[in-house]
Design goal:
Helix content is about 35%, strand content about 10%. It is of the alpha/beta class. Helix 5 packs across helix 6. Strands 2-1-12-11-10-3-9-8-4-7-5-6 form a 12-stranded mixed beta sheet, sandwiched between helices. The longest helix is centred in the last third of the chain and has 30 residues.
């Protein structure tokens, strides 16, 4: 008989106090079992109350400690409870959540004295003891008191702008907004403000900013002889700032990012669906093809949250979240972020929880997340930290300071955790922090690692959303409108010049030589005050414009078609 099957001694008083903070009643995410004195205590389960997951959370730990498996474990149980989930799959190893994992062929794993039902086929998992083949799964399940059955979960797969396998996920430039786009373009504060003026002008004139070419056209127009006075009354746009913005747009286009901006724009309400069997749909955004563009995809994920915030009604406290959003490689979001951007992230997190949306950041160290954001995260699953350098040691000390008073020597525990183990604390249903609990985590039930390319392709093309979003649409927008108006203005200027020149020559007593073309005067002189261009604002303004008042990130409420 193994040690895990022997009768365990009674829990010490300190361990009982910890266990009492995680009551067994109520809907919850089953994380695992308490670790105390080097033993896994299956009689003391560690759980996250489902009703508190809209208070946000953090999954952190050094590379190889099991963060991705923890993310997968929580996502599976949320789906099983009927809660939709969104996962950003940066490394391409989360697609296996749609397929059952496995212990041995034709075998399931149950708690001692219980029998499981075989529900899936064999699969090979990772080597962290939480989902590998055979004995590792059996032993982990016995240790934590888990009734393990292989199970796949309903999934939709997306890709940014069609870069990679997945339903293309796009946003119009005008929906993305100036604040988020300024982060992608790496603009400073002054340039960010100028970009806001450009968006304001496009909104007020009804110029649709759909793709990057539309934004480029508006910027070029506003510093041309024809448009340089348009923003003079509200601060203007300098040629130098316009040049920076245009160069940044060119660099973004050269990276292939123009495919991310366009139509049909993704309707974020599609993330809130459930499967016919009542399980929450797991939306997986496949990002391996754009790993070299971290600012873009991290900022794009923030746009999804901002758009959800704009659309969802207030619901207050709910029994279970409407959506839980997992933000992997979270440090990419905050690298080089402006003060205004960070303020908007904090405000979004603070307010979106009242709309039933929870956000989990996944990263290597809590130090990757700014303190003002970290303070909004009610649940924390901290895997092992390393202290190989003085900087690592300082980060460890700072991390320990952020935890409630503990029965553990946290510095020692955090550096001594094994793969698939973590230190956990959360908000109880009363809103108070739960005791800090070293935890051995359960094994995910789905496949650890990616599914095959053929399986992924079939899943994408069989989706009900594929026909709606697969093909890009190029309709008339700011680029076409400004091009047409400029052409009309130039033609009007040429006609006006041809009419004026004969009269001037007649006054001088000279007739123009027959067949000589009229000399074209400067555009600024002939066109800026012309009737054609004076009518530009009137003709464009008759259309339905975008909202000028934008939400937290400057994103506009999209017109739903």
């Amino acid at each position: 008989m193994s040690a895990s099957e022997q009768a365990a001694p009674e829990l010490p008083e300190a361990a009982r106090k910890i266990a009492a903070g995680y009551p067994p009643a109520g809907e919850a995410i089953e994380l695992g079992a308490l670790l105390w004195d080097g033993r896994c205590r299956a009689e003391a389960p560690i759980r996250l109350p489902l009703a508190m997951l809209n208070r946000h959370g953090l999954v952190a730990g050094a590379a190889g400690t099991g963060k991705t498996k923890t993310l997968q474990l929580i996502a599976e149980q949320l789906s099983g409870a009927g809660v939709p989930v969104f996962l950003a799959d940066v490394r391409g190893d989360l697609s296996g959540i749609c397929a059952p994992g496995g212990a041995e062929p034709g075998e399931s794993v149950a708690e001692p004295g219980e029998s499981g039902t075989e529900t899936g086929e064999s699969a090979t998992g990772a080597d962290d003891g939480r989902g590998g083949a055979g004995e590792k799964v059996r032993e982990r399940a016995r240790q934590v008191g888990q009734r393990w059955e292989a199970e796949g979960f309903p999934c939709e797969f997306y890709a940014l702008g069609g870069h990679g396998a997945g339903i293309p996920l796009r946003a119009a430039v005008t929906d993305f907004g100036p604040l988020l786009l300024a982060k992608v373009l790496e603009l400073n504060r002054t340039q960010e403000q100028s970009l806001g003026l450009i968006f304001h002008y496009a909104d007020s004139k009804g110029l649709e900013l759909v793709g990057l070419k539309d934004l480029r056209a508006v910027v070029a127009f506003l510093v041309s002889d024809l448009g340089k006075d348009e923003l003079r009354g509200i601060g203007g746009l300098s040629t130098a700032t316009a040049g920076v913005i245009l160069r940044s747009l060119t660099a973004l286009e050269q990276q292939g990012a123009d495919g991310f901006f366009g139509e049909p724009a993704f309707d974020t309400r599609d993330l809130l669906r459930t499967a016919p069997d009542g399980r929450g749909l797991v939306s997986v955004l496949e990002l391996p093809a754009v790993r070299d563009r971290p600012r873009l995809f991290s900022t794009f994920l923030m746009w999804l949250l901002a758009d959800l915030f704009h659309d969802l009604p207030e619901v207050g406290d709910v029994e279970r979240p409407k959506l839980v959003f997992f933000f992997d490689e979270a440090h990419l979001l905050f690298d080089g972020a402006s003060k205004a951007f960070l303020e908007s992230v904090v405000q979004t997190l603070r307010l979106i929880r009242s709309k039933g949306v929870g956000v989990f950041f996944v990263t290597q160290s809590p130090q990757d997340v700014p303190p003002e954001v970290l303070g909004q995260l009610g649940s924390r699953v901290q895997h092992a930290l390393r202290a190989f350098t003085p900087d690592d040691a300082e980060a460890l000390r700072e991390t320990v300071k952020t935890y409630p008073r503990s029965e553990y020597r946290l510095g020692e525990v955090l550096t001594g955790l094994g793969a698939g183990e973590a230190v956990v604390t959360a908000l109880s249903e009363s809103g108070a922090p739960t005791p800090v609990a070293a935890t051995r985590l359960r094994a995910p039930r789905s496949l650890l690692g990616p599914v095959g390319a053929d399986v992924l392709e079939r899943a994408v093309k069989s989706s009900a959303l594929y026909g709606r979003y697969a093909e890009a649409v190029d309709r008339e927008s700011a680029y076409e409108r400004l091009s047409d108006e400029q052409q009309a203005a130039e033609e009007a200027a040429v006609r006006a010049a041809r009419e004026v020149e004969p009269a001037q020559e007649a006054e001088a007593g000279q007739a123009p030589p027959p067949g000589r073309p009229a000399e074209e005067p400067p555009l600024a002189q002939q066109v800026v005050g012309s009737a054609v261009f004076r009518s530009l604002a009137r003709s464009i303004g008759t259309q339905l414009g975008r909202e000028i008042g934008r939400s937290l990130f400057g994103t506009a409420g999209r017109r739903r078609r």
